[in-house]
Amino acid sequence: MAANVAYGLHGGAYDATVSAWPAVSFIGAAEMLIYLIRLSRTRAVPASRPTLVPAAVPGPIALPVPPRTEAVPGGRSLEDEFRAEIVAGRIPGIKRIQKRMGGSQDTAYKHQAGLRALIDAQPVPA
What we know:
Layout: H1 2-8, H2 13-42, H3 78-81, H4 83-88, H5 94-101, H6 105-121
Helix pairs in contact: 1-2, 5-6
């Protein structure tokens, strides 16, 4: 801080004060940080309560995703709108689904998941 004040002294008291300000603010911030660290170390830790742990935790349950067949504003279903892609085994992109089905991006992701379920449900050609 003294070096900053000495640098600003040649311009007067105002310049010396302005030159000292960054050092003063740094020291203030460092003191606040030290205070918060000391405060966090002196707080009492709440006593933990014993909890029961189940003997066996079941794994995730995989539920089948039913195909989504919502109708578009024109009255056609998702399956009707993208029949060619389903037959070819291709999943259209989000922007394309949004353009043809309308709705938000989240809705398009749901439609895409429905199309993926429809493609996965197709029988594999022999």
